[in-house]
Amino acid sequence: MAKNLMKHGYPLVIYDVFPDACKEFREAGEQVVSSPADVAEKADRIITMLPTSMNAIEAYSGANGILKKVKKGSLLIDSSTIDPSVSKELAKEVEKMGAVFMDAPVSGGVGAARSGNLTFMVGGVEEEFAAAKELLGCMGSNVVYCGAVGTGQAAKICNNMLLAISMIGTAEAMNLGIRLGLDPKLLAKILNMSSGRCWSSDTYNPVPGVMDGVPSANNYQGGFGTTLMAKDLGLAQDSATNTKSPILLGSQAHQIYRMMCAKGYSKKDFSSVFQFLREEETF
Amino acid sequence: MAKNLMKHGYPLVIYDVFPDACKEFREAGEQVVSSPADVAEKADRIITMLPTSMNAIEAYSGANGILKKVKKGSLLIDSSTIDPSVSKELAKEVEKMGAVFMDAPVSGGVGAARSGNLTFMVGGVEEEFAAAKELLGCMGSNVVYCGAVGTGQAAKICNNMLLAISMIGTAEAMNLGIRLGLDPKLLAKILNMSSGRCWSSDTYNPVPGVMDGVPSANNYQGGFGTTLMAKDLGLAQDSATNTKSPILLGSQAHQIYRMMCAKGYSKKDFSSVFQFLREEETF
Amino acid sequence: MAKNLMKHGYPLVIYDVFPDACKEFREAGEQVVSSPADVAEKADRIITMLPTSMNAIEAYSGANGILKKVKKGSLLIDSSTIDPSVSKELAKEVEKMGAVFMDAPVSGGVGAARSGNLTFMVGGVEEEFAAAKELLGCMGSNVVYCGAVGTGQAAKICNNMLLAISMIGTAEAMNLGIRLGLDPKLLAKILNMSSGRCWSSDTYNPVPGVMDGVPSANNYQGGFGTTLMAKDLGLAQDSATNTKSPILLGSQAHQIYRMMCAKGYSKKDFSSVFQFLREEETF
Amino acid sequence: MAKNLMKHGYPLVIYDVFPDACKEFREAGEQVVSSPADVAEKADRIITMLPTSMNAIEAYSGANGILKKVKKGSLLIDSSTIDPSVSKELAKEVEKMGAVFMDAPVSGGVGAARSGNLTFMVGGVEEEFAAAKELLGCMGSNVVYCGAVGTGQAAKICNNMLLAISMIGTAEAMNLGIRLGLDPKLLAKILNMSSGRCWSSDTYNPVPGVMDGVPSANNYQGGFGTTLMAKDLGLAQDSATNTKSPILLGSQAHQIYRMMCAKGYSKKDFSSVFQFLREEETF
């Protein structure tokens, strides 16, 4: 992502908790600093990308966080996938300092990040969206405005929850059909021309031998890991609990990916749920 | 369906447990007889369409069933949606009488039946498929060979199970997103260009106001009733229990549609699960 | 069970598909015959004990089944755990032959069978209950009349479904508590004096180290196998589907035990669901 | 609770966000103050009882919170049912001020509160337990030490999750049995002498007509409300997500009580899940 900003001619001020991650940029002549606060001192457009809600809170509100030195009028874009209620909290604190916060979680994986083809789902004040899009457009081919702060997260979480549900559903339907005597390729073809069709069945089929170029064709290597899916489903669960929204299948999908993590699937692509269900009874 | 056979010039021999259903055909000059056995006596290509496994067993093996008078070499096509293991049983009994049995459940609804645009999923001996297709092609634009007897049912059941799961998933994701502040149309658009995309989100969206011409735009009238979906999920459940296939979300979907039937949704389209989940807490 | 009848002085006529199982009785001077029909020819009180619905149908209605030679007025007691609707079907056929059928499934395990301490749940005509109790009382300390034919099965199935649910619930609650820092013995003690108390927590606790003399204290050897629990939950599922009864947790419990069977737990006691949930995420 | 402390001779300093709630105590001559901070200024043993985690944080860390004026060496006991991770956070902040924090959630309902028969589950430093017990013993007949801070909450949450699961399981099993033809009282009797036995079946049976003196005998009035159970299950869900503990049935129970709240059951006792499942299909 940072490299794509460089390619578009933006000078960078970089911080990462793992100094090695910055090496390449230092060698390329970019500034590498020693805390988020230092970034905020030198830059007025900042993009953050963190693994958890706690990490994001630390990066913004921690002892050496962005808020310690943020300049008035700065534009702060958080591309982490975190709890939408945390995004809203951060936005409030940023606003108190006279700056602007937007949440802009990303989808598309490592390949899309490299090629600048990510999708960004952006939440925040609509007037600032053009400014955000200028930057995000360097890294993504799709930059979608979703509404007030937190709605970027909401869109991402809802999509991934539906993705998890339809992936498990595809795995269950394919497995049941195979046990009932259907050929997997034929079954996939029938589903894909019928009302069961979904991205998990027609673009990312979880059954080995049905499609080429997907993780199921490569022993579930690469792709979107089970651990990451379990994390996103945890966020969906939290949001649903907070808003009192019933998610009967979403909850169950969360529990299934949680169990897969504990049974050796944590690093496999999330379509390996087919393999998880498939294991045969042995006597 | 029968009218489309007439249009293609086939003379008909008709039986229905409700005599009124035959009136129109009698007036059009077709033969109406008084039992399935009588049909079998006069015709050597027979299509049956019954609501349950028990009804199908009765029509074939009952006291006045087809098997009482079936002619050698007859082609019997059952278009009911029933338990695949029942289809296999019927096929065995039919074979003993020197005739051929194929299961050919249908999808597409009343509109597609009228316009001859049904999809047939056909299971049975491959050599007989051409003969079956000649007839079924008068009623459906898609006639797919699925494999041995029972696989037509299997394909239909697997598709409808995945459909139920992705419909409930779509309803949960849309509802959660709306409660998190997203506009429903925008959320549907985002899902449909992302990995959450499915037939239930892009063709048959369950949220009123998102699409035109679907049951959700018409108070969930018409379409595919909740009772019928609950019935198909019961068949999926039975098949999964018999083959020891885990269907964690499929089972849950079955229970959800079962509950909806008991809570006033039995005659509404199955996309009304959105309304079922949506009902607000009141104090 | 047969030995306890011998002890009470009843002469036996025995049949088993595995001839070796009869050896001991032959040596003890009891009659061993070569089919269920032969038993029916020689005895007028018959007790059957089969693993599945299909086996029971075969034993009664098969080519050499009991119904081929059953004498008028015979009392036929089926102690198999099978689908209540199959029990009702068998009862009808038996009645046609002028004999009486009762379903009397059993609970208590191998130990209780040996010591004559089984529990029998009996369904059938009330006037015949005394006659059934005379025999069943030789093998069980608890013989409970449940109502019309099939209600014995119904009671057993309902009990085992609730047992499965509360066992999984106990395992989930104990596991969650332990991860939250509670001592397992203390947590069990608190649950058992509170409203979470159940047989699975106070008599058969699934957590190793909490109780002595239960399968969890012995690496989940012995007890009631996961495969058998999965079978009984399949029956509960079928009965619920047939009667359109929602069983949200019962369905889920069924799927969980089904998955455990496929993951190496089939021969372990059903309380091993704690171990199944417990497995830690590894990196 | 406060009255039971008065009865034991403790002078009170009282604050409640609803001033009316303090009226009775003012008239009885107790001190009523205008903020949690004012309580902390005047008392060195403080008991808090709040409905949510957010309320508890406000009462301790808010602008007029206890921590603003807490005295060194004070003992702060929080009897709210909240997220154990919040209890731990509060404990840290309290400790920084040189005071002691314990979590002591309560079970038993309004009746037990009045009669001084509550159960307290206490988490915190063991050396302080005796001091806490002196106070809590005035209000409860059972004061159980559970371990480090947060384990009181953990014990309560685990108990209530298991309670919810076994209550729903009891309702499903009773409903299925009734539909299969069993008499409810007889079925309850059989379960209660078998392995399905649990508090929900033998002490608080959810089926009207089975027991006297329980909410099911009184149209589900009184008892423990569905909204409160949904809240506790939300806490269990959060704790499980945070600790990556799979709770397949616990999650499902959460969703079921969530849906009941949206369908008119929010103020009924949580055993009304039987009624919720029971509603008949109508045509």
Summarize this entry quickly.
Four copies of one chain form a homotetramer. Chain A has helices spanning 2-7, 23-27, 36-42, 53-61, 84-96, 109-115, 129-136, 151-179, 184-192, 199-202, 226-243, 248-265, 273-278, and strands at 13-14, 31-32, 45-48, 75-78, 100-103, 106-107, 118-123, 140-147.
Strand order of the largest sheet of chain A: 3-4-5
Mean pLDDT of chain A: 94
Helix/strand class of chain A: mainly alpha
The biggest chain-chain interface is: A-B, 67 and 67 residues
CATH homology superfamily of the largest domain in chain A: NAD(P)-binding Rossmann-like Domain
Overall geometry of chain A: elongated
Number of strands of chain A: 8
Multimerization status: homotetramer
What is the share of helical residues of chain A? 40-55%
Distance between the termini of chain A: 51 Å
User: How big is the Rg of chain A?
Assistant: 21 Å
Separate helix tally of chain A: 13
| The CATH top-level class label of the largest domain in chain A | Alpha Beta
